[in-house]
Amino acid sequence: MACKGDATQKCGAADRLSVYVDSSWVQTLFARPSYKSWNLMACYSDSTGSRTLQNGVSLAAYGGAANASIANCMSACQTLGYVYCGAEYYQECYASNTAPAVSLVAAGQDPISAGCSFACKGNSTEVCGGAGKIIVYTNNGTTA
Q1: Per-residue pLDDT tens over the stretch 10-45
Q2: How far apart are CA 8 and CA 109, in angstroms?
Q3: How far, in Å, CA of 1 to CA of 45, rounded?
Q4: What is d(CA 8, CA 1) in angstroms, rounded to the nearest whole number?
Q5: Does the structure show a pLDDT above 50 at 144?
Q6: Radius of gyration of the chain (CA)
Q7: How much is the pTM?
């Protein structure tokens, strides 16, 4: 059937739907807003001398560093009972039960522009922090 707004285009028919594939579209890098009961806080500055989240978390049970993703990092933190969890430098996972200092929130309108722009090794469409930047989530027991 012709579209009502443009009779030169097809808009399906009775019990039919026109479906198109845009093969030029590619998923871009994004900061995952949530995972299960974990919700994004912000991108924070971090340093090896003074960690924003003090405890390193192993991803060995989730396929190791090569399979690092926000989901795997949050799952590892959940298993260990942490409230704050974050990913940094493509593959690192850190956690704490103490909230990160507000003064460490990295400047930027969103996590990517704030420096959390490194793709996770295990999911190249989501960010896992950056150089000296950690993307932090909190487990507040609710799903966003």
Answers
A1: 888 888 887 878 888 776 899 999 999 999 999 999
A2: 42
A3: 56
A4: 10
A5: no
A6: 20
A7: 0.81
Distance CA 60, CA 128 (A): 17
Which strands form 92-96's sheet, in the order they lie side by side?
34-35, 38-45, 133-139, 84-88, 92-96, 55-56
What is the C-alpha separation between 134 and 142, in angstroms, rounded? 22
What's the CA gap between 33 and 43, in Å, rounded? 12
Q: How far is CA 43 from CA 3, 82, 100, 133, in A?
A: 46, 18, 11, 6
